[in-house]
Specification:
By secondary structure, this protein is an alpha/beta fold. The chain is about 25% helix and about 30% strand. The chain is built from seven helices and 14 strands. It has helices at about 5-20, 25-30, 90-95, 115-125, 135-145, 180-185, 240-250, and strands at about 45, 60, 75-80, 85, 105-110, 130-135, 155, 170-175, 190-200, 205-220, 220-235, 260-265, 275, 280-285. The strands form three sheets. The chain has a ten-stranded mixed β-sheet with strand order 7-6-5-8-9-10-11-12-14-13. Strands 1-2 form a two-stranded antiparallel ribbon. Helix 6 (about 180-185) links the parallel strand 8 (about 170-175) and strand 9. Helix 1 (about 5-20) crosses helix 3 (about 90-95) and helix 2 (about 25-30) crosses helix 4. The longest helix has 17 residues, at about 5-20. The termini are far apart. The relative contact order is 0.10.
């Protein structure tokens, strides 16, 4: 084992501990996939810890040694736009929550330059399939190049809220939305899992905060619950101003803990509705097994 392979192995084990990972295939994927392949040549821009009031917000690695990347740090993809390669422990937690199995079809919306897409591709294996969607043309171009070595990965440049990926076992929406796209809900197979960042925008730059919603297609309907807080940029095309205001109010207090299902049937809003929209409702009612 080379020194760099040993560093990747340690990095993967650290993520296992920090994110409490259950999937052995996921740990092995983090130990295998070269993060530097997806971030361009070094030196790299590392995001300073949030508690440091420093200017600039990034620090530059001392050299181009890829070992700098095998820590639980955010790495700048385009610092001028404050676009970063996601926090490894957080993305590891999300991917683990998708409960991916070998041979499944997973959809990654907002794939960036493709690092975490490659991680999921390793988990589902060559018998599986990955559809990665990125709306930013430059990022999509980089992702297509970076992932070209994986024959079972398809890169789509376009709006992830409108592109139909076909029947899917798991979907990760890596950007903030005010509501689930009907395309995502329609494409979920029985037993399928959807993770989306339900957020309220807090500024005109498109950043916002909220919670990660996990939706599971069970025999009795769409069960769901919030599994984590999140702060993230918004997803283009999947935001509604009215719902944004409703979310700001709904996230006050801890009533979000009462959400148990996602209803798609037409009904009047009642006190069992946590967030009632025209095409969906996050409900306090449980799904019958």
């Amino acid at each position: 084992m080379s020194d760099l392979e040993a560093v990747r192995q340690f990095y993967a084990e650290e993520l296992r501990a920090v994110a409490n990972l259950k999937s052995e295939r996921l740990v092995k994927a983090f130990a295998k996939v070269p993060r530097e392949h997806f971030l361009g040549p070094g030196p790299w821009q590392i995001v300073n810890p949030w508690w440091l009031e420093t200017d600039p917000s990034y620090r530059t690695t001392s050299d181009a040694d890829p070992r700098h990347l095998y820590h639980n740090v955010l790495v700048g993809i385009d610092p001028n736009r404050r676009l970063n390669n996601g926090q490894p422990s957080f993305l590891a937690f999300l991917i683990d929550s998708l409960e991916l199995q070998e041979g499944e079809h997973v959809v990654h919306i907002g794939c960036g330059t493709g690092y975490y897409t490659a991680i999921m591709a390793e988990v589902v294996g060559s018998n599986g399939r990955v559809t990665a969607i990125e709306i930013d043309p430059d990022l999509a171009r980089h992702a297509r190049s970076n992932l070209s070595y994986l024959a079972h990965v398809q890169i789509i440049e376009g709006d992830g809220g409108k592109h139909d990926p076909g029947p899917s076992d798991a979907i990760l929406v890596n950007a903030g939305v005010t509501h689930p796209s009907l395309v995502w809900l329609d494409s979920l197979r029985h037993g399928g899992r959807l993770l989306l960042f339900l957020t309220a925008e807090t500024d005109t730059a498109g950043s916002g905060g909220g919670y990660v919603l996990k939706v599971t297609f069970k025999p009795g309907g769409l069960a769901c619950c919030f599994i984590s807080r999140v702060g993230v940029f918004s997803c283009v095309g999947t935001r509604d101003p009215e719902l944004n205001e409703k979310l700001k109010n709904a996230f006050t207090g801890e009533t979000w803990k009462s959400v148990q299902s996602l209803r798609r049937d037409a009904h009047e809003a009642t006190d069992t509705c946590w967030l009632h929209g025209e095409t969906f409702c996050l409900s306090k009612l449980a799904v019958l097994e």
